[in-house]
Specification:
326 residues; alpha/beta; single chain; 6-stranded parallel sheet; Rossmann fold; binds beta-D-fucofuranose
Length: 326
């Protein structure tokens, strides 16, 4: 076949692909024929201030960018997320995005989405499947790095001191990427100095209620806690209530490090009740809409899209609090 006819075939194919892309769906009717991109999104739940801000960001950006968002709240249950993904496949949405409650157990349902030719975007949390063809891209934070930043602050804070430092840890939801990774990153940094001892570590489910309850049991069992490392602000805030109820001063008697930097956390930081916060941005909406449009058009996207984050001391929290939106 000559070069010219090959080029002609290629051009025809490209036009066909472009037309399919412009239509915004591949013959399905999930959008009710509106021509809008239909995005099925399965959210973890409403466990924290971070999650509330993340949901708002996704809903607001969908509205602003003309995306028809089918939003389903999994109420913290993987089985609900699997059900939601299956229903998105049946509805033939254009793109599926979800924030996996836990890291494992996704291969079967994601193969179903792949067989149905519906691209999947992992949002905020990763999965542990080695088969990266099951999703187009993963947008979110580097949770190991967040744990490391928490550990680095601690190492600096106790520099030059030799007494043992008794640490208690409130972990996130068992099996969730941010719980696994924030634990690993922190442990990696503090293991360099044997004076740092994690004397208790338990899940507080990323919620205020559980954070408070678990901290109460920690306080009863260990009269000598120096530091609390909580995998998110909400658990730290719950723990502050328990510490105060036990007659101790949070931030002074017990130093506190958390992750997220939502408004309530930043307020406690500015007040000196938390000593350091590692930021994790929930504002993933605009980038998610952009990626959804690109994958729907068959454009190449990066396998990993990282969000940019910083850290906050009480002084820095005071400065940024007035403009903090979430
Ligand atoms: O840090 C926590 C939330 O997955 C990054 O989930 C998210 C975490 C966040 O419940 O507050």
């Amino acid at each position: 076949m000559g070069k010219r006819s090959l080029a002609a075939i290629a051009a025809t194919l490209m036009t066909a692909a472009a037309l399919a892309g412009c239509a915004g769906d591949d013959g399905g009717d999930a959008g009710g024929g509106s021509g809008k991109l239909v995005l099925g999104f399965s959210q973890v739940g409403a466990e924290s201030g971070w999650r509330t801000a993340n949901t708002k960001s996704i809903q607001d950006s969908a509205a602003a960018s003309g995306v028809d968002l089918k939003f389903v709240d999994a109420q913290g249950k993987q089985e609900n997320q699997i059900k939601a993904i299956r229903s998105f496949i049946t509805q033939r949405v254009d793109v599926i995005a979800f924030s996996p409650v836990v890291e494992s157990g996704w291969d079967t349902v994601l193969k179903e989405a792949k067989d149905a030719d519906i691209p999947v975007i992992l949002t905020d949390r990763a999965i542990d499947s080695p088969d990266t063809s099951l999703y187009k891209t993963f947008i979110g934070s580097d949770f190991v790095l967040e744990g490391k930043k928490a550990g680095e602050w601690l190492v600096k804070e106790y520099e030059g001191k030799n007494d043992p430092v008794n640490i208690v840890e409130l972990q996130g939801t068992p099996g969730a990427a941010p719980a696994n990774d924030r634990k690993t990153g922190f442990a990696d940094v503090i293991k360099a100095d044997p004076k740092f001892k994690v004397i208790a570590s338990q899940t507080g489910q990323f919620t205020r209620t559980d954070g408070k309850q678990v901290m109460e049991t920690f306080l009863k069992a260990h009269p000598d806690i120096d530091v609390l490392y909580a995998h998110n602000d909400d658990m730290g805030l719950g723990a502050i209530e328990a510490i105060e109820a036990a007659g101790k001063k949070p931030g002074t008697d017990i130093k506190i490090i958390t992750v997220d930097a939502v408004k309530d956390g930043m307020t406690a930081l500015a007040a000196g009740k938390i000593n350091y916060i590692v930021e994790c941005s929930p504002l993933l909406g605009p980038q998610l809409m952009d990626l959804a449009k690109k994958v729907n058009n068959g454009e190449q996207v990066e396998q990993r899209v990282l969000t940019e984050e910083t850290t906050f001391t009480p002084e820095q929290a005071k400065q940024v609090l007035p403009e903090r939106k979430y």
